[in-house]
Amino acid sequence: MHRRRRTALALSAATLVAAPLLTACGSEAHPGAAAVVGGDRIDMATVQAQAADVRTAQEDSEQPEKLVTESGQLIRAKLSGLILGKVLDRAAEDAGVSVSRKEIQQVRGVVAEQSGGDEGARTRMLEQSWVAPGQIDQTLRQEVQIRKLALALGVDLQSPEGMQAVQEALTKASKALHIDVNPRYGSWDNQKVQLSTYKAPWITQVTPAQGQEPEAGA
Known about the structure:
disordered C terminus, three-stranded antiparallel β-sheet, 5 strands, disordered N terminus, mainly alpha, 49% helix, single chain
């Protein structure tokens, strides 16, 4: 029997704290912005839309009340994830790393195999990572970025030293982007690469599917 391979999931319901929904106003410097990253705005409407997609999927699930209760930090989780995506893009660019559509589909296939099919994968990611069906590919793209970043750095992501090296690369990219978060959602922690008000696990384990190593230079 083949050993099941696990993939990294960016979000978790480890800490459950109720959080208010975003409102239309922002800081005076960046009205309507939840954050500004490298000069680019992440609008509150974007964060709200991502959270709304998750809530819709949760309400259509078999246990809506449980999922909603366990995702009290959904707004902060989505904002933190959007900022992390831009940090990953910067770190990947610095390391000469890119991600192909094929690689994303390979990882999605692994998740589906682990979960008993596509429907199981959608349920798994909704429950464990607060990811709506339409957000899965973007979440998996970040996973592939992290794995390929580790390869570019010549480290093993599953070792403490490898995780530290990747963390340092993300911290460097994070600092370079001069991230400014709307104070109502806390501040951005460059060292932990997440919102100060949102406690999220970082990388757990990334294992490429058997015979599906990342494409060189993809």
